Amino acid sequence: MQITFEKLGFTYQPGTPLAFTALKDVSFTIAEHSYTAIVGHTGSGKSTLIQHLNGLLKPTTGTVQIGEQVITSATSNKDLNKLRRKVGYVFQFPEAQLFEETVLKDIEFAPLNFGYSPKEARQIAIEQAQAVQLPTDVWEKSPFELSGGQMRRVAIAGILAMKPEVLVLDEPTAGLDPQGSREIMSLFQRLHQEQGLTIVLVTHNMNDVADYADHVVVLEKGTVVGDGQPREIFADPQWLTDHHLGLPQTTAFAYQLQQRGFVFTEGLPLTEKQLAHELAMMLKGGNNQ
Amino acid sequence: MNKLLLGRYIHADSFVHKLDARAKLFLSFYFIVIIFLCNNWQTYTLLGILTLVSVVCSKIKLKFFWDGIRPLVWLIIFTVVLQLFFSSGGHVYWQWGIFRITSLGIENAIYIFCRFVLIVCMSTLLTLTTPPLQIADGMEALMKPLKKVKVPVDEIALMLSIALRFVPTLMDETTKIMNAQRSRGVNFEEGSLWHRAKMLVPLLIPLFVSSFNRAEDLAIAMEARGYRGGSHRTKYRQQVWHRNDTLVMMLFAVVTGLLIYLRK
């Protein structure tokens, strides 16, 4: 499903003294099957923006088109419910949404809400528990007995159980240890590659952006200030600093090399692989001074 | 919930806002006591004027006072109707079975109505002009004497301030969890009463869990910094008694004197 934002504006508590414009004149497109990262400083409107993706917020002005469905300020709540089935939304610290007695029961909550029979829902729950690599011995345990990383997997499985076409991730690795983060991120990468899920990732971690995303949107103060491929966005470190963003580790390293005289013909590399490749080429070719 | 606890305080630079929270708290309670001294139209008029003057001095729009009364409208109507139909004494205008309207009944109904409106206006004035934390501090100060009879005043005050402090946090959390469950296909707005009651479970359980976790974290954080309730604590927000506070107290004393003189 392609997602298009068209002159989207959103104001919290409009018409009151507390009115706050979180987004204004936001226009960009998320292609089907893409892996889009939305980055920006705290308070830049990222969370507000992605809440439009499954109708938790309705635009104050402008439109959001998701697949065939166009959402404006006048869209009814019933139509929004249909949308929620297609767009899975993994909140920040999603383990806060767990409530059932057992892990499997919690995972089958969404399918049951969307009208699957108990038998089908159980089948889906088992599939998803396997997909997020939850060991079978915790399936019948209370989700509150699990470790932080496992709780997060249960919560994510609970979202995947809706069989969404678009997966929205709001800082999915916040508070996890490095290994847990890597495992979760490669799970999403697998879903993206194997099932063609469109992924929208909100993150502060530029390494994740460099490693996984194929499209980056930079927000600042509620407007889009950058929209392009990671290589384009990360090509200008000064611009990133001006917008309070960092560089991926590899790119920062490459940038220092560049300042010492290395020339990267295809722009600054983003991943270790690219860097190694380019360095090897250069050393062989003897381009460096 | 928002209307009840939070959205109440309205910032303005007025005489009433600047009064000490202790004075305002004490006088609000005192007002409820003296209103029971009223028993004729002169006395009610006197307190009516007092209330009106206080309201005007607060520079807050009358609409907000109406918002304070509105939730209680049914209670007021119920009490007034009860007084109107079931009082006895005085001239009987109308009678039907056990219902009767008498001159005394009408009089009582009007007085009860006035009493309600005046009390609500005065208490609303307190919450509109005093930030919640100042009210908590004021309560603590006023409850001090109870320490003599072993009432855990510091602990009560601490509980009160913590509760007030966490209302916004809890509301954010509620919104977050509601959104998360909405994304999993829960519809909080539609469906039968039974369905909607059932849908509170996925909301309340996560809320309880996170509240307990938060409470535990807070307790650990306080103990780690050596918190002890009790007499040796100093305060960041100092309460200062001004001359105006004394003046207002004296005004109320004068009004009390007048009341006693005017009542039947």
Observed structural traits:
heterodimer, A: 289 residues, alpha/beta, Rossmann fold, 2 domains, 6-stranded mixed beta sheet, 4-stranded antiparallel beta sheet, 10 strands, 39% helix, 21% strand, B: 264 residues, mainly alpha, two-stranded antiparallel ribbon, 12 helices, 2 strands, globular, disordered N terminus
Summarize the structure.
The complex is a heterodimer of chains A (about 290) and B (about 260). In chain A, about 40% of the residues lie in helices and about 20% in strands. Chain A is α/β, with parallel strands linked by helices.
The residue ranges of chain B in which pLDDT falls below 50 over 5 or more consecutive positions are 1-7
Largest sheet of chain B: 2 strands, antiparallel
| End-to-end separation of chain A | 48 Å
Largest interchain contact:
A-B, 24 and 19 residues
Which structural class should the secondary elements of chain A be placed in?
alpha/beta
Order of helices and strands of chain B: HHHHHHEEHHHHHH
What is the CATH-assigned architecture of the largest domain in chain A? 3-Layer(aba) Sandwich
Number of domains of chain A: 2
Low-confidence parts of chain A: none
What is the gyration radius of chain A calculated from CA atoms?
21 Å
Count of extended strands of chain A = 10
Strand content of chain A: 15-25%
Annotation field: number of helices of chain B: 12
If you average the pLDDT of chain B, what whole number results?
A: 87
Question: What is the helix fraction of residues of chain B, given as a range?
Answer: 55-70%
Helix-strand category of chain B:
mainly alpha
In spatial order, strands of the major sheet of chain A run 6-7-8-3-9-10
Quaternary: heterodimer
Shape of chain A: globular
Relative helix content of chain A: 25-40%
The CATH topology of the largest domain in chain A comes to Rossmann fold
Family (chain B): Belongs to the energy-coupling factor EcfT family.
InterPro entries (chain B): ABC/ECF_trnsptr_transmembrane, EcfT
Subunit structure (chain B): Forms a stable energy-coupling factor (ECF) transporter complex composed of 2 membrane-embedded substrate-binding proteins (S component), 2 ATP-binding proteins (A component) and 2 transmembrane proteins (T component).
Function (chain B): Transmembrane (T) component of an energy-coupling factor (ECF) ABC-transporter complex. Unlike classic ABC transporters this ECF transporter provides the energy necessary to transport a number of different substrates.
